[in-house]
Amino acid sequence: MRLSQVVTALLLLSIVTTAYTLWRGDTVQDINARWEVSGHADETSSAFTHWDDDDPPVVPAACARCHSQPGFIDYIRADVIRDHPVGSVISCNACHNTALDGVTNAFFPSGVEVTGLGSEVSCMQCHQGRNSTVSVERAISPDNERLPLDDVHEGLGFINVHYNIAGASLMGSVTMGAYQYPDRDYVGQFEHAAYVQTCTDCHDAHTLHVDARACAPCHLNVVDRGDIVDIRMTPGGLTDGGIRGEIDVMAEALYRAIQDYTVEVMDTHVVYAPDTFPYFFIDLDEDGEVSPGEAAFPNRLQTWTPRLLRAAYNLNFVYRDPGIHVHNARYALQFLYDSTEDLSEVVPVDMTGMMRP
Ligand code: HEC
Ligand code: HEC
Ligand code: HEC
Ligand code: HEC
Ligand code: HEC
Questions:
Q1: Among 89, 95, 202, which is best to mutate for testing ligand 3, by the most ligand atoms less than 8 A from CB?
Q2: CA-closest candidate to residue 59, choices 92, 14, 90
Q3: What is the Å distance from ligand 1's center to 205 Cα?
């Protein structure tokens, strides 16, 4: 072979490889670098280290389906549910494996099965919470009979929906993730707009980041990520103050109503500390705020009435999905409104200006 032929061959080869890479999209190395910065790769997160000091150090069966990669694959295969050693994160094989081939459904904590899922099928298995209307209702209606709403019951304790529950928000009344009051209608899945319907439409499957530029064509106020909280659709399609702000106002009103309710009904002052499990504590100095020392497990609220439990469950739900204003704002406003109104049957709540969407 002559030198010029070798050069031509090499040139052709490099053109073909470049073209192939461009056509093929990102290389595995690129994707790996993107995944590395995501929460799924964060081996120091409490979502992956919570069980490290247990004896033995295993992720229990009940937790492993979302907190352990092999546990997740077991769950999808639906053959064995068992404990798994600590130390895994959610890496490539969790979402790219034969167990998920052909899987298009997810069972939610309410027992409801969601079908017809596409590339968001893995997300829906884990970001769905662990409780729902069904489990709250079961707690306040043992033996299928509703306990008196304003009596303290020893058997009741706080119910936490769990963390980063975007799937439960997005599906709304389809999967009943929030506590839905009887005889009230709730919106179902947030039918947003084309190309922004599923988890992976908005979140990069590897970095998990949302590219705010994808919102700009329809939400004219959005230039970068910080503008997302200001999104509001008025009937005319224009933006006018953020719907996040409305959710915050409603959540604040519910919180104050909860505080008035516990004083009125139980002669107990409570505070909500969103970052400290189990979130509702006794307000020892009765100043209405979380003061030093109050947010401690031994000081947790241990007296619960059914009416308080369902309102507290819903207030906490909003905090457990930091993106609820995008995932299903109307669902949030509906259940916050209903909880506040329910408490207003017992304590005075100024609901002027509040509207149930
Ligand atoms: C096997 C369970 C599982 C699956 C499948 C899963 N997640 Fe997660 N996700 C988690 C856990 C656990 C965390 C918390 C990680 C942490 O704290 O570092 C998390 C964190 C996140 C976060 C927070 C972002 C961050 O960087 O902290 C986002 C956003 C997210 N996941 C989106 C998704 C999307 C989108 C999908 C589907 C493509 C998905 N997840 C699939 C369990 C899962
Ligand atoms: C249906 C899926 C699922 C199950 C089952 C599950 N978790 Fe989680 N859990 C998650 C997701 C998703 C997160 C991610 C939160 C985040 O991004 O920080 C999480 C977060 C956590 C965290 C970190 C909370 C924080 O404040 O950062 C702890 C601790 C935790 N879970 C404990 C448990 C325990 C204990 C069990 C079993 C009894 C369990 N989980 C079962 C999905 C699940
Ligand atoms: C939480 C689930 C999840 C994890 C973890 C994950 N992927 Fe993906 N991956 C997806 C989804 C979903 C798609 C399809 C993307 C879409 O349709 O938007 C995808 C697409 C891909 C593609 C096709 C090219 C592309 O960019 O669309 C490759 C290659 C890939 N992933 C490799 C990897 C590698 C390598 C890792 C580990 C470093 C990894 N993935 C981790 C969910 C995941
Ligand atoms: C319409 C676009 C859109 C869809 C669809 C969507 N998300 Fe989000 N999500 C967002 C935005 C925007 C945020 C807030 C991000 C920010 O500003 O930090 C967010 C926040 C989150 C968070 C909290 C992230 C954090 O850093 O705490 C998680 C977890 C999450 N989404 C997971 C999901 C999952 C799982 C699905 C599917 C069930 C989904 N999202 C569907 C746009 C979307
Ligand atoms: C193709 C157009 C389109 C794109 C792109 C789009 N949206 Fe929307 N968005 C809409 C429409 C239409 C509504 C009103 C839907 C309804 O109320 O049923 C809406 C409603 C919303 C709402 C609720 C506002 C309210 O007042 O009810 C939020 C929050 C939101 N979008 C966030 C986002 C984010 C974040 C992105 C980018 C990741 C995005 N949207 C991309 C069209 C779009």
A1: 95
A2: 90
A3: 9
Q: Is the CB of 27 under 6 A from ligand 3?
A: no
**C-alpha to C-alpha distance for 143 and 49, rounded to whole angstroms:** 38
What's the 219 CA to ligand 5 centre distance in angstroms? Answer: 7
Backbone angles phi, psi at 25, to 5 degrees: 90, -150
Residue 134, CB-side half-sphere exposure with 13 Å CA sphere? 13
pLDDT tens-place values along the chain, 357 residues long: 565 676 566 555 555 454 444 455 689 999 999 999 999 999 999 999 999 999 999 999 999 999 999 999 999 998 678 999 999 999 999 999 999 999 999 999 999 999 999 999 999 999 999 999 999 999 999 999 999 999 999 999 999 999 999 999 999 999 999 999 999 999 999 999 999 999 999 999 999 999 999 999 999 889 999 999 999 987 654 445 799 999 999 999 999 999 999 999 999 999 999 999 999 999 999 999 999 999 999 999 999 999 999 999 999 999 999 999 999 999 999 999 999 999 999 999 999 888 999
| Peptide bond preceding 278 in cis form (omega within 30 of 0) | yes
* Span from the CA of 64 to the centroid of ligand 5 (angstroms): 34
Closest-lying ligand 3 atom to the alpha carbon of residue 24: 24
The set of residues, in sequence order, having a beta carbon less than 8 Å from that of 101 and lying 6+ positions away, is none
Measured from the alpha carbon of residue 39, the closest ligand is: 1
Instruction: List ligand 4's pocket residues with C-beta within 6 A.
Output: 120, 123-124, 127, 164, 166-167, 170, 192, 196, 198-199, 201-203, 210, 225, 228, 322-323, 326-327
Q: Which of 115, 65, 78, 73 is nearest to 95 (CA)?
A: 73
Ligand 5 centre and the CA of 11: distance in Å? 48
